[in-house]
Amino acid sequence: MEAVARAPIDALRPRRLRRRKPLRFANRLPGGRIFDVFEERPLGGRIRAIRRLVLVLAWTLLCVPIQALLLALPGGAKMGFPVLYHRVLARLIGLRVKVIGTPCRDRPVLFVSNHSSWLDIPVLGGVLGAAFVAKAEVGTWPVIRTIARLGRTVFVSRSRGTTAREAQEMRDRMAAGDSLILFPEGTSNDGTRELPFRSSFFAIADGARQVQPVSVVYDRLGGLPACRRDRPLFAWYGDMEIASHFWRFARRSGARVTVVLHEPFPPHRLPNRKALAAEAERIVCQGAERLRQNRPVEPLAAPRSVT
Fold first, then answer.
1. pTM for the model
2. pLDDT tens readout for residues 158-169
3. CA within 20 to 30 Å of 151's CA: 42, 43, 50, 69, which one?
């Protein structure tokens, strides 16, 4: 009787009448900082994540020597093979890619996109067939460094002493016919909004024949529209660790990303790089916002000439 008297009142009620415990956002995953409200059952999610990790490693180990060989050979295969690698990689990690619009064929093209996650790399790499412009820090990460270099990524430090040299390197790449993928925000966002585009990033736009804005939003999870509380599962920003973020994402199923390729336009259509950055930001943000609201989206028209 004494033990019964000390028991919580819910313990004396039938199970169907007990109050549910409130959701607690505790650190339940190794190295993780965010526990998703809709986390799937532990066993199935872990098996799924382990399977995906093994497949990703196997696919990468297969592709690295092939791409290394292609880089030593003449021809365009060294740019085409990374498209296949990224496209398969996105499927292996459980991400379905929906594309609205068409990549510009009037190369070289400067693709400018919003950026919220490392997931943007396999997504855009499998759609656009272009080299990425990444911060120099990425060139120091194990494994990722090797993959990025084999993909002919351009690394920039953004320090004043090297800005001119790095800008000229990117112009030379475009003069050789290579298209580039640029993230003008300068860092990744939290997936709920875009950061201002930096006009300094558009100093290389004169080396491209066309500029094409691109909107990227992760809009499905478990086959249902993703909502605001799902964003941390996709977005990778701040001091998040990439290993724990990959683990959380790999446990889930039914994820989809939508990529909207807006109408391209020649960079000289706008008077200066500030106007170019502002117009690209407007188009990218407008497309991304419509996707987050689960509204129908079509590629937005290019800006008219400004005199």
1. 0.83
2. 676 677 888 888
3. 50
